[in-house]
Write a structure and sequence with these properties.
- By secondary structure, the protein is mostly helical.
- Among the domains are: 65 residues, Serine Threonine Protein Phosphatase 5, Tetratricopeptide repeat (Alpha Horseshoe), CATH 1.25.40.10; 73 residues, Tetratricopeptide repeat domain (Serine Threonine Protein Phosphatase 5, Tetratricopeptide repeat, Alpha Horseshoe), CATH 1.25.40.
- The protein is built from nine helices and no strands.
- It is elongated.
- It starts with 15 loop residues before the first helix and ends with a helix.
Length: 203
């Protein structure tokens, strides 16, 4: 008598094997539903906290925003986005020690996160740490070459260093990646016009 494989009918009636398999499929689906619901609730709860924290940040309530993002970390302890938010809020609250701490955690947990690196670069640029800003913006571009503002801000770093050809090159790259970036377009036009004017006047 041939050995039966898993899922074959346990009696000789045709069609029972199909119903047996369908039963297993239904059982697995019902088992998966609670996990899917929990995942959806987890994601929805974090997104709600994230939106609330961003609103508080926009309203200038930086430490309150930190508290909300901390609750986000209770929902998702490895969240890069929450750590970036906390770091930005602390930077606006002039708590550079804590800003550095959370930025460092964010880029460690998300070494390929363009969000983490770009926000870190903006923080470094505000602090006039050009080396740190350049590294962060290059990491942003490495993670996502079309990340909005990455090439533009790297161009600002080069402009501050007087490296205008590199600055203009980055602004062109920004416009190639994000044609709607009006600030990059205006900056490129202004610098180009200023150079032409200086050249025409013999400067």
């Amino acid at each position: 008598m041939p050995r039966r494989s898993f899922g074959t009918p346990l009696c000789g009636l045709k069609g029972r094997g199909m119903f047996y398999r369908i039963g297993w499929v239904i059982l697995l689906l019902f088992a998966a539903v609670p996990w899917a619901v929990l995942f959806f609730m987890h994601d929805t709860r974090f997104d709600g906290l994230d939106r609330r924290a961003h609103q508080l940040l926009d309203d200038g309530k930086y430490l309150e925003a930190v508290d909300v993002w901390e609750k986000g970390l209770d929902v998702d302890p490895r969240s890069v986005r929450a750590r970036v938010g906390i770091a930005v809020a602390y930077s606006y609250a002039d708590r550079d020690d804590l800003a550095e701490k959370y930025f460092a955690e964010a880029v460690e947990l998300g070494p390929k996160s363009p969000l983490a690196w770009h926000e870190y670069g903006l923080y470094k640029l505000r602090k006039d740490d050009l080396d740190g800003a350049e590294k962060a913006f290059k990491k942003t571009i490495e993670a996502d070459p079309s990340w909005y503002g990455a090439h533009y801000h790297l161009g600002l770093v080069y402009e501050k260093r007087g490296m205008m050809e590199l600055a203009k090159s980055e602004w062109v790259r920004e416009l190639n990646a994000n044609p709607a970036h009006a600030v990059a377009m205006l900056r490129l036009r202004k610098v180009t016009a200023d150079e032409k004017l200086a050249k025409a006047s013999g400067g």
